[in-house]
Amino acid sequence: MEILKNVDGGTLCLSVSGRLDNTTAPELEAHKEALTGITSLILDFTNLEYVSSAGLRVLLTFQKIMNKQGSMTIKNVSPDVMEIIDITGFSDILTIE
Q1: Which residues contact 4 (CB under 8 A, 6 or more apart)?
Q2: What crossing angle do the helices spanning 79-88 and 53-69 adopt, rounded to 10°?
Q3: Nearest Cα residue to 72 out of 31, 24, 12
Q4: Which of 58, 63, 75, 91 has the maximal Cβ count within 10 Å?
Q5: What is the pLDDT of residues 9-68, one digit of tens each?
Q6: What is the CA radius of gyration of the chain?
Q7: What would be the CATH architecture of the domain defined by 2-76+86-92?
Q8: Which residue ranges make up each domain of the chain?
Q9: Are 51 and 80 a contacting pair, CB within 8 Å?
Q10: Is the pTM above the cut of 0.85?
Q11: Are 67 and 35 in contact (CB under 8 A)?
């Protein structure tokens, strides 16, 4: 997995590529500290191939943090990843464009 980080004022964009699973989820979760002072979090999943329950847990953690200080949006989700998000019911709690 690769994560590209871009901060522009109060907006943090994390572009995630590869697989977000048990092995790589801690790498994304490590970016939790970067959320301090951020009012808009954008997760770009253009190149994300797969997300597991461990990855979904990190997304939920980020969503809880951002509910208190701003907003979180997930963009460019592939049909395969969207299917996982839909099946788990996460599409009801995440903002996906």
Answers
A1: 14, 15, 17
A2: 80
A3: 12
A4: 58
A5: 999 999 999 999 999 999 999 999 999 999 999 999 999 999 999 999 999 999 999 999
A6: 12
A7: 2-Layer Sandwich (3.30)
A8: 2-76+86-92
A9: no
A10: yes
A11: no
